[in-house]
């Protein structure tokens, strides 16, 4: 029989995306429309604008992805759509579209947790990556350490007690007047500054507490900005180093409790930061573990990771009913 083909849909935040992936991990097409320009005047994602933009963008992206792969809907075996967590209006657009396609074409639907998309994306990038692995999931909405044991099988070792790491980057960018989206702007500015120029806290490091915290760091950045003593570049570099020190300290602690893992893995938008990647790579090497990070485009939101999570779930029989709800909150 021909290889199973999965159509993936993503619409949980400010990217609309459609992708076609085969069950053996080939990316046959991936299309993405970002809403950055629509949200830029507001300095952040406006849910109502996002939902309307998803409605306009999604169907043409699906058509384009099918054309890229020289396919029609009849060639698709499984429909996978993000069902949460995220902005509910956007999530509903993608999930309802997925349900309609699944119903019309008589194909199974898989409701994918967006976080599972990120969590399994490293296996799409590197087919040799085996379960279980330790995952640092760092995005705009989440900052977690997870034991990934298989599709649908996650043990959370740590989460953030306040802001997510990406959120801290975005808020710092706003404080520094670097605009939206913040992470890449802060990384650019940081490259021109000194990481030791501004004394900033490293919340929770060296404590027995397993979790992350970034709110105190954000407040310290605000005070540094208001003091007028430092350049934007020095604040950006010092902030980025403080985040990295926190990520590394917490991840090192989790590695101590992770016997039998095959690799240290990073995923999510913040994993697009090259200094974050380099620090994690060094940590993995110090523990004699392989380090796996998806390519940059697969770290930030996309539909290939949703299609792939659908492929992994389909392979173990995790299929959903068309009554499955959209969920604004949905822990892994
Ligand atoms: O995974 P993602 O695309 O969306 C969510 O599911 O949240 O992650 C977006 C987050 C944003 O907070 C963005 O500022 C951050 O990832 N980000 C970065 C970089 N690129 C994206 N943070 C630091 N450095 C980057 N280069
Ligand atoms: Zn994401």
Low-confidence stretches: none
Mean pLDDT: 96
Number of strand segments: 10
Strand content: 15-25%
Could you please say which CATH topology of the largest domain applies here? Nucleotidyltransferase, domain 5
Count the helices. How many?
A: 11
The count of domains is 2
Instruction: Quickly give the CATH architecture of the largest domain.
Output: 2-Layer Sandwich
Structural class: alpha/beta
What is the alpha-carbon Rg in Å? 20 Å
What would the principal axes of the Cα set say about the shape? globular
How much helicity do the residues have? Answer: 40-55%
| Overall CATH class of the largest domain | Alpha Beta
> Which cofactors or ions or other ligands sit in this model?
5'-O-[(R)-(carboxyoxy)(hydroxy)phosphoryl]adenosine, zinc ion
State the strand order across the main sheet.
3-2-1-4-5
Strand count, sense and barrel status of the largest sheet are: 5 strands, mixed
Query: At the fourth CATH level, what is the homologous superfamily of the largest domain?
Result: ATPase, nucleotide binding domain
Topology order in helix (H) and strand (E) letters:
EEEHHEHEHEEEHHHHEHEHH
CA(first)-CA(last) distance? 33 Å
Organism: Sphingomonas bisphenolicum
Protein name: tRNA N6-adenosine threonylcarbamoyltransferase
Enzyme class: transferase
Binding site for Fe cation: 114, 118, 301
